[in-house]
Fold this protein.
Amino acid sequence: MKLSLIFVSSIFLLITSCTNKKVETKELDKLISITDSLMNKVTISKTQFLDSIYSLSGKELQNTISQGRINYKDSIYFYNLLTKTSRKLNDIFTYSHKEILFSQDVLVSLKEEIIENGEISESIKKDIENEKEILKLLISRTDSSIILMNESIDEIYKFLGDTFALVTPKAQVK
């Protein structure tokens, strides 16, 4: 009986010592959530800007050309502007996307390390604080990227506005 009691106690101690301690990762989960949010924000902006470019400019250019108010040279310039703007949007998006993913990978790695170790060491605490500062910068950079995307689209609106201004009949002076 004593032998079975010692055996059961040994098994119980072995099982309880082998189970992972529950470590609090809410802070990292929140930071990872912020990177998800940033990724979503920049993706939605890119999609909306591209949809806006193609929708508005395609309709307006088609109407302008069909009414004979734009010449061949302007339509080639517009096509090149559209191509350049689309590339610029994709470049800005890709750069932002890579920055966000890198930050997210670091945060996920820190979380995995905490879970694996069962505790938050001082070096991990420092890394988390550094990542918080990096995340603040990343939020600002993401906002700047969206502004840059918007500014590149403004070139198309400006072209369409300039084209209309050039072909709109001038008011006659009486």
Q: What stands out?
A: Helices lie at 2-18, 26-66, 72-117, 122-167. The CA atoms of residues 53 and 153 lie 7 Å apart. Residues 164-174 have pLDDT under 50 and may be disordered.
